[in-house]
Amino acid sequence: MLTKKMHWLIFNLxxxxxxxxxxxxxxxxxxxxxxxxxxxxxxxxxxxxxxxAEAVVFFDCGESKxxxxxxxxxxxxxxxxxxKILKNSGTHWAEVNIxxxxxxxxxETVDELKAAAYNLNEFGVLEKTPITLQECKTEKxxxxxxQKKFAIPNVKAGTIIEYQYEVRSQYVFNLHDWExxxxxxxxxxxxxxxxxxxxxxxxxxxxxxxxDSYEKSESDNERRFSSxxxxxxxxxxxxxxxxxxxxxxxxxxxSDYIIKLEFQLCKIIYPNGLKKDxxxxxxxxxxxxxxxxxxxxYQQQSQKLAKKIFDLNTMAQKSQKARFDTVIxxxxxxxxxxxxxxxxxTKSPDRLLTDKSGNSAxxxxxxxxxxxxxxxxxxxxxxxxxxxxxxxxxxxxYSYFNNVVLCANPDSTWVVTDATNTEIDNNRIPSSSINGVxxxxxxxxxxxxxxxxxRFPSIERTKVILNVGQEESTASINVTANEYLxxxxxDLYGNYKSNLVKAIRDRNYIVxxxxxxxxxxxxxxxxxxxxxxxxKTEKMNGKIYVSPFAHEIFTINPLxxxxxxxxxxxxxxxxxxxxxxFEIPKGYKVTYTPQDKEIDNNLFSLxxxxxxxxxxxxxxxxxxxxxxxxxxxxxxxxxSYFKQIITxxxxxxxxxx
Length: 657
Description:
Helix content: 10-25%
Distance between the termini: 86 Å
Number of helices: 10
Largest sheet: 11 strands, mixed
Number of strands: 37
Strand content: 35-45%
Radius of gyration: 30 Å
């Protein structure tokens, strides 16, 4: 932190390094004032380039600047946004959250806020409904983040809302990024950053190739820091007519693909002439973590504890695979994860064993120390969880990472493991950590990346036994899932039957609570449930149309966009198998069964086969996505596969008297 006791500085105008972008030389400025609503905005009722939009952002304007403080500088961030609600479904845009960082003596505060809704009354007069900062609520997110929340009242289709606030921050490392793109169209978005020559930042534009306007200029006013006189250097970025970000299925994190401007502090220049590089190299990052008390030294302390926990002579008689399983199982049984993803530890290994609870870094670095002490080569892997965004391997920023897992080498086979999760096998990591690559932390000079993609296929099997009636049919359905689909259902339903019953009813089944049973076959291997339900028999012109898989197969294609510029992220390979059977009702015969169908290539497979013998009709349907992730160039092909799943899965068997 710069202080006013520093007396000397080699004046060096800040240079921003552009990454991946080319910038036009001309820009535009916008003079906007709170409360000045014009007639064009009042009459506006449809976005030209997105006529189905539920709301539209008229403008979103941000500014970051450095302000003198007793200890050096604060960062002051202002935002002013105006939105038109076009449909009642868009009223949720009146709910606003302002995230604020807090750590030890560093914190952010909202010092000013005003917001209002504007509606035309029955006499054609524009009425204003305001709120103030005092009407905001504060909500804790985790140990480092809180958020101010407010909801603008009296909002409906046709309402214009606007809000303006100021955030004052002591955390100069955290220069605000700027998202040009929302999930609704944005007509005008601008961000202005006023830089001072003491901090140098790098920035990158994600999701676009250039700005619609960019300007760089010196401020008119001179400023003084100690004996140094300088002027702010202003950078003005603009994008217009930004399309809505359609957040489809199969995406790691919106933040990975939305159009935004990201900043990273790369250097501090001190008045005594010293310079401190903040941006490091991957090699230096590895060395720093190895010598860090709350990372590498913690692992070494854990290694020394191994002889108190295990008989190392007895352990040496076991195979490396057995040692690996013994250690990971011990850690899973004797510690529990507190739900926090962390890169660093906050307590000692002894305290971890006493508390029997810790964050992801504490538990996994503890396990790494024990494994190495027992003769199993183990290295920590730092990564970014799916909700945190993907790592950009070209830029060694600590901010990319928020979690620690392990890669170990029992019996000459490298496996990735996570000792925080008791419901997955020892050679698995949770699906939340399957997110591209992680950086291996060891003493080697070579930088190595660990591929986190899962090669293990997850399989879901569904058995449907139908009893076809004249007006109403019944279905007895049994679903069993393994691997990551097992984990998915445990996270969704667990042993809470009410959650499962609701999900079943949402699929248009008539079901009683007592007809639903959760029956996990094995604590780790499978999640299984079964239920009996009623469904309406489909009849027309004396014929009965039987859907062999009832309501078990989705009917809406999850891929809805015309094009897609980012990958289709399945997380893991997935296979779905459906088996159906029913007895032909008395007095009826089968007059139509679906034609057999087969697709099989290196991306996808599908199989449909139906048969009947005597009075029993059997149908088997399966499909498989063979890769955990598909390139965006395969979007149309993937969309076609989903369409074929829907078509094949909705085929009906026809019965006639």
